[in-house]
Every structure is written in C-alpha cells, then in structure tokens.
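Dear V.,

Thank you for sending over the compound details. I've combined the ligand you provided, copper (II) ion, with the protein sequence from our construct and run the structure prediction for the complex. I'm sharing the raw inputs here so there's no ambiguity about protonation or stereochemistry in the SMILES, which I know was a concern on your side last time.
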Amino acid sequence: MSRLPLAFALAAAGLAVAPAAAGSGVTISAVDNAFRPSSVTVAPGTRVTWHNAGKAPHDVTGSGFASGNLDPGKSYAWTAAKAGTYAYICRYHSGLGMKGTIVVRSASGLPKTGGDHVALGLLVLGAAGAAGLSLRYGWRLR
Ligand SMILES: [Cu+2]
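Below is the predicted structure of the protein with copper (II) ion bound, written out as structure tokens.
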C-alpha cells in the first residue's frame, strides 16, 4: 500500500523537475533599473542570457564578461563554465542599485531559477494527492 503513493510522488517530482533540467539556460531581465531576478544559482555549463526588457539602454559588466551597450530589446549571453560567484553591474545604473549575482555550482546539478519552488509545491501536492488516493483505495478494499 505504501509504495503506490511514493511512486506517485516521485513521478510528480520527476515531471516537475524535468523541464528545468532539459533547458540548459536561464534568462535574466534587465528592466529600468534592476536585474530580475537579481540573483540566480546555476550549474556549470548553463547559458545565462540577459534581455533588456526596459526602455533605457543597459549593460552587463562582470568579472570575465561584459555585454557592452544593450539597447532595449537586445540580449547578451554568457556561459557559466566554472563554479564561483560572479557579481555584475549595469555600468549606467549601478548607482541606482542595478546589480546582480550569478552563483555557479554543481551541488544540485540543476539550474536554480525559482522553479525549484514550483517543483517543491508540485511534490507536496503530488504526495498529498497520493495520500488521498491511498485513503480512498484503502476504504474500498474494506
Ligand atoms: Cu541599467
């Protein structure tokens, strides 16, 4: 009886995690005047793309990467090859707090983009649903 809910929960977790693993990139929006999200954690090899979704020009300048001027609608990509913490700024608006951080690490093996919360939520929902099914199934057997 107890194996069915576990399998159900694992399947739900697998479904939730799969899209994050399949996509080898994350996108950060540059708006006026902030990076969203301002901090992301990704696995080595992840392609990080900044997209200027604002109305003003921005740029991305960090240790080992620099986009140069990014007009509205333009994007810049950088592949996070090595583990480490990479702070970056928009040279035009750093004084307004337009800064961000990319943490590259292989601990989880998965990009962490905020989708983790969704995955966790689905896992909890899946487990709760499986428990509910198990209860109903048990009642019918009796
Ligand atoms: Cu800017």
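A first observation: Residues 56 and 136 are 57 Å apart (CA to CA).

Warm regards,
I. M.
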